[in-house]
Amino acid sequence: MRRNFIHLKIGAILFLILIFYLGLLFISGLVNERQRYQQQVIKDIANEQIRPQQVIAPYLKLPYQVHTTCTNENKETYQCNEIRFITIGAENSDWTAAFKVSDSTYKRTIYKAISYQNHMTAQGIFKSLSNEPQRSYLWDQAEIIFPIQDARGLNAKPNFNIDGKAYKFDFAEQSQSQRGFDVMHITTKQYPELIQKLQQGFKFNLQFELEGLSEFTFIPTSYEMTYQAKGNWGDAKYDGQSLPFKKSSQQQQFQADWKNIALGKRNLDQLSMCENSECFYQQFNSQPDASAAYPNAATKSGLSIQFLDQVNIYTQTDRAIKYGIMVIIITFGCFFLFEVLKNLKIHPVQYALVAMAQGVFFVLLLSISEYYSFSLAYLIAAIACVGLITWYLYFVVKDLKAAILFGILLSVLYGMMYLLLQSSGKTFLFGSILSFVLIACVMFVTRHVNWYQSEQQTV
Questions:
Q1: Residue 101 pLDDT more than 70?
Q2: What are the TM regions of this chain, as residue ranges (predicted)?
């Protein structure tokens, strides 16, 4: 009985590819589930131990009294005194941050969170208030405010050196807030000798150690500011109100430098509207305005550094799965060429077993990479699957050379897929070149095949 052999075989191959694609979707869902577990662990660590940190540079909060007209409950007006505040930042300041970043400090079972220890130093000058408008200032109620997102990351209360004398920050009464900042302050009520220094201006320096999780944001309040951040992590992402004017990144080191004369005044204007720590959080963590022309522009606050996974195993595995359909199409295509060129008969069940072996590759890749490096996991999974398929093909095609040749082809294919995973910025370029090379090879190998003659075969 004679059948249209090629059409039937192509139909069977396409059906198996569809089944394989559904299997890849299931494995992709497994990757997403494992990634959600990791994200939940990071959330638990943030709630129970330490959070990403935001630090607002110290500034002066000075109350003053004004005579104004007030209205009582009966809507009657009368003369009264009202207390208002002004916020004053340093005239200039220089900040440095030295990060020690690790992914082994906080972990639960196999899941790890990136954390850092930040040694931060600052020096600068607060100018005298002679240029400020003459008001009835309440100097005995003046404060130097220093808000920190999560004071659990401090190993000691920071010392603020004013003209060579150290003053220790204490927590303000309204500092504790579940969603706000932990606000620390130095008051003239506690240190009356500071009144004269605040009036005449002073030099300051500040040092503190702060621990945080995955991201650090510095919110400047000085009118002129320089800020340098460096540390032992190669994959750092910069964001916020301003990007660094100079940055460098090596395998295990990064450095970034900022310089700005506008952000301090802008941030002080926002701080002047706040009377409690939760307001600080709302001001600097607002939701995007969808109606704005650039909806994200107004929501970015401070100068932000985010420490990324140098190799995110879930992202890498998910990307590898996206190439899985290409791998199975090439594999089935090579099988089909073997049938045509060598006049072999490979049963659809044998196609399906090879497809299952390649599906198991992604499961092995995910499970092994959760315990070892992604590169090692990829190597082990690729060797296991290529070895299994090569061994199986020896019995299918009854030809050692053909089986070894196919194993080499699979090894090259997995090697190319690994290069695509590592070339994040040039993936499209390399992928398009690879596609061209593959189709050129197929055309070269089949240039003498008489497809009309091959259509009619005994099944």
A1: yes
A2: 12-31, 320-338, 350-369, 375-395, 402-421, 427-446
